[in-house]
TrEMBL record:
It holds the Pfam family CHAD. It comes from Caballeronia grimmiae. Gene3D superfamilies: CHAD domain (1.40.20.10). InterPro entries: CHAD_dom, CHAD_dom_sf. SMART domains: CHAD. This is CHAD domain-containing protein. PANTHER family: CHAD DOMAIN-CONTAINING PROTEIN (PTHR39339:SF1), SLR1444 PROTEIN (PTHR39339). It comes from the Bacteria. Residues 28-291 form the CHAD domain.
Length: 291
């Protein structure tokens, strides 16, 4: 299946039929009037996932909620030049806050999984109580935040601002420009990371975030952008996978360090830390090969 067909299938799956893949029709569309066609399916996904978390913090559903929120943040970033800067910053901050709330529980799930992989099952078992507590905090935060209302109001306000603007930007021109900007950011961050020491996780983390942004934008605007901008999707997925794996072990080490005083057998905790430090080095090397 050709790339354009893959992208068009994804758009149809997300109920984005308003965006016509026909070149002539696309040329008459504007970025401002197309915003809701991109935003509404993402909001729907986030609300649906949040609704399933009312009684239990399921790890997979928390992950899906985080992904939907990250994609929304990326869309708001794409439309940033057309939105009031303060509004765009606030919206991205809201999505980040909600994503972090959803992520706290999943971070513990990853920690437990990785520690179990070291063979320290007793140590992993002791962290399940902390995971349960994090789960309750995640549920409470998301419930109090009223995800449905927050997201609906945010998209409505952005849509209103865009559609009352005097200027109109051709959708194709907008999509190609924003993808190009994101790709340049990724290239710069990869260059910085390639020059950094292997202990400089921050620069690797920036590559991961930039890679996600480009991937999401390519998936959003696939039928609108040129073949050259689309062809790197496979590489982006590889970057996301390897740098995501590195992020998992780094986050796990941070959590483990923070809770070394918890009721875990000291020797078991130290063995787990040692094994995870070795795994961190291995994943750093694997990620560095893509720079």
């Amino acid at each position: 299946m050709q790339l354009a067909s893959i992208y068009e299938s994804r758009l149809r799956h997300n109920d984005m039929k308003k965006i016509d893949a026909d070149t002539g029709a696309r040329d008459n569309q504007t970025a401002e009037t197309s915003f809701s066609a991109y935003a509404e399916p993402l909001v729907g996904d986030a609300i649906a996932e949040a609704a399933t978390l009312e009684s239990a913090a399921d790890a997979e559903k928390l992950h899906k909620l985080r992904v939907a929120l990250r994609r929304l943040r990326t869309l708001i970033w794409a439309y940033g030049p057309m939105l009031d800067s303060k509004f765009g910053t606030q919206q991205r901050a809201i999505y980040k806050f909600l994503a972090n709330a959803a992520g706290n529980t999943r971070d513990w799930d990853i920690l437990i999984q990785l520690v179990e992989a070291t063979g320290e099952h007793d140590a992993a078992e002791s962290f399940k109580q902390a995971r349960a507590e994090a789960s309750q905090r995640s549920l409470a935060t998301l419930s109090h935040a009223n995800v449905k209302q927050v997201l609906r109001e945010a998209v409505s306000e952005a849509n209103r601002e865009l559609n009352t603007a005097a200027k109109r930007t051709p959708l194709v021109k907008f999509a190609r420009k924003r993808v190009a900007t994101a790709q340049k950011q990724l290239e710069k961050r990869m260059h910085t990371a390639s020059k950094a020491s292997r202990n400089d996780y921050a620069s690797f983390h920036e590559v991961r975030k930039a890679g996600k942004k480009v991937r999401y934008l390519v998936e959003f605007f696939g039928p609108l952008i040129g073949k050259k901008q689309r062809k790197g999707l496979k590489d982006l997925k590889r970057i996301q996978k390897r740098f995501g794996a590195l992020n998992d072990v780094v986050a796990t080490l941070d959590l483990l360090q923070q809770h070394r005083s918890s009721p875990v057998d000291g020797a078991a905790a130290e063995r787990a830390l040692h094994a995870l430090h070795k795994e961190q080095k291995r994943r750093f090397k694997a990620a560095a090969k893509l720079l």
